[in-house]
């Protein structure tokens, strides 16, 4: 169950980070409220995952899920670069997250 909490925490981390783009410096009410709520849920789920998963592993996986998700959505939503080098770096993050799961 801890890994499910961690996966969901990562998904809400993605929502938090993408939400920041829409808050326009926290000047827009509803995007700001959604962003704060996503951050709170993400941290709450992370704390539940930390009951079982070692902190170093959990934090690295949480940030890895967030980084890959935000980078991917940046490409899709905001026309960020999808260069081969960037995609290779995203793949390395995925490999690291999978590796941490396998050894934990």
TrEMBL record:
SUPFAM superfamilies: Multidrug resistance efflux transporter EmrE. Keywords: Cell membrane, Membrane, Transmembrane, Transmembrane helix, Transport. It is a multi-pass membrane protein. It comes from the Bacteria. The chain crosses the membrane at residues 29-47, 59-79, 85-103. It is found in: Cell membrane. Signal peptide: none annotated. Pfam families: Multi_Drug_Res. Belongs to the drug/metabolite transporter (DMT) superfamily. Small multidrug resistance (SMR) (TC 2.A.7.1) family. Gdx/SugE subfamily. This is Guanidinium exporter.
